Amino acid sequence: MSATQNKNTLRAVFEELSKGNGKPFVELWADDFSWTITGNTKWSRTYRGKESVRKDLMAPLFSRFATQYTNTATRFIAEDDYVVVECRGNVTTKSGQPYNNTYCYVCRMEDGRLKELTEYLDTELVSKALGDPP
After folding, report:
1. CATH classification of 3-130 is 3.10.450.50, yes or no?
2. Does position 134 have pLDDT exceeding 90, yes or no?
């Protein structure tokens, strides 16, 4: 797929994420999808494989949320198989703490699927609002 097609695919997915609908995002993941969270938090590492991302990252993360998570993109930059998405999440944790992080996702697409995502974010906010993963 072209850079424009990849960008348009992610633009459509983030339009749904901004409404709280994460299903199209998850459906975009390749079976061997990997998600890397940068930094030195207890959450920071590479989660390899769609099932690991669901079980080891998404399940513990979303178990901390009291409100519906949304993520709104503000910029898309595409080149070849890569799409960079600048975005902002919005949610409140069960402890009542706002977790409104700003992200830069570097996404690698392959055959219309999301193959890799590297997440750059405010790691201090991760530690403060989310604490340690289980």
Report:
1. yes
2. no
